[in-house]
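Troubleshooting log. The previous structure file for this entry was overwritten by mistake, so regenerating from the original sequence record. Sequence copied from the archived sheet and checked twice against the printout by T.R.
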Amino acid sequence: MSTRKKIALIGAGNIGGELAALCAKKELGDIVLFDIPAKADYAKGKALDLEQNGSVLGYDAKVTGTGNWEDCAGASVLIITAGIPRKPGQSRDDLVATNLPIIRNVADNAKKYCPDAFVIVISNPLDAMVYEFKRRTGFAAEKVVGMAGVLDSARFCLFLAREAGVSQKDVRAMVLGGHGDDMVPVLSACTIDGVNATHLIAKDKLDAIIARTRGGGGEIVKLMGTSAYYAPASSAMAMAEAYLLDQKRLLPCAAYLTGQYGYNDLYMGVPVVIGSKGVEKILELELSDDEKTMLAKSAKSVQSVVDVVKAST
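Regenerated output below.
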């Protein structure tokens, strides 16, 4: 029997396709690109295109397009992009009514076919969708995370690097809280090769960068008419790779809180260590009073959407 890992991608749209391409190029395992039966041929066509691309780029990953959940059975990693992406003028929260039935259907099938998978949820509104997935499946909290902080931090890093005139490679930043307009870019944990960003960038510039980071997804939606997909896919892939290769990476992810930062029964972006056991540790940063206030506001926003989800069960 094959010992290669199976990576199941739920949703064959823009993010799913880019995820499949990244998985294949990195040869992390065999890939299943799943979509609803009506879009199964689209998934199969994209999978065939990616396999043919392997002959050019020199990778041997098997890519299967399907509309059948049985093909996802036994997956080591499950990355969920299913749902309707944002359109101009929409907030992430506007997608609750549309994407909630979708995430519940995915959860029911994941519980049946992929009970041992490490699950990364990308579907919006992120924090509420990953909460509902865990609630519905009953999966262990350390095996269910949401992709948000890696992406939000990447946007923050880019804007900081551009303003400071330095390489993105030297910027380290942390964005906590919900994946929305109240996210919390933590300046106290933001450095450029060890030097705090506040020493290199003026406060008014930093304030503008924080505002742009919070609206980073909306900026792209406005420009393209749909959600981003290259950076979100790479962000989820960093999380998946950390799990598959036991890298013990410290990454900001939407994790299930059981008292950390003063919050319970809530998914929210916090720094975690991801290794072969999933979320192996949640780190509690020393936050300033202002940062604590911002995190509380973000948590309140997340809770309000989660309450809507709970009310519709």
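The first helix runs from residue 14 to 26. Archived copy saved in two places this time.
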